[in-house]
Amino acid sequence: MKHRICLPLLVGVVAGLSACSSFKATILPQQEGSFTAVATAASYKDAVENAVGKAGEVCKKQDKKLVILDRKEESKDQGDGEVMKAAKTAADIVLKLGTLGIVSRGGDEDYKVTLQCKCE
């Protein structure tokens, strides 16, 4: 009988905790009270929103304001020449035609944003 009561309670608690934050980022503690927020996403905008949102949550829990000390951005497309970009586009078109549009062009981790932060 106890197991039947505990399991739904545990499922509810886990679901509630996962609903607390919709931002997908990793927080890494650093020296002197600072931390790093790292987020990856299919778009630059989503990566920034996730990193800033998660960092903001950390500071909000401390009743402090977020201060961004440094920002680093990366893209899987960085460094690609025009010929490589054209080749990727052509390959994407062929794949989409071959699979009737089932294949998507972007991945979930095309953009990465790393923020150095602290709470004040």
Question: What report would you give on this structure?
Answer:
By secondary structure, this protein is an alpha+beta fold. The protein has a domain at 19-78 and 107-119. Helix content is 44%, strand content 25%. β1 (26-29) and β2 form a beta hairpin. The longest helix has 18 residues, at 2-19. The N and C termini lie far apart (49 Å). Mean pLDDT is 74; it is low at 1-19 and 99-106. Keywords: Signal. Residues 1-24 form the signal peptide. This is DUF4156 domain-containing protein.
- Pick out the low-confidence regions: 1-19, 99-106
Largest sheet: 4 strands, antiparallel
Distance between the termini: 49 Å
Number of helices: 3
Topology (SSEs and partners):
Layout: H1 2-19, E1 26-29, E2 35-41, H2 44-61, E3 66-75, H3 82-98, E4 111-119
Antiparallel strand pairs: 1-2, 2-4, 3-4
Keywords summarizing the entry:
120 residues; 4-stranded antiparallel β-sheet; 44% helix
Outline:
With 120 residues, this protein is an alpha+beta fold. The chain has 3 helices and 4 strands.
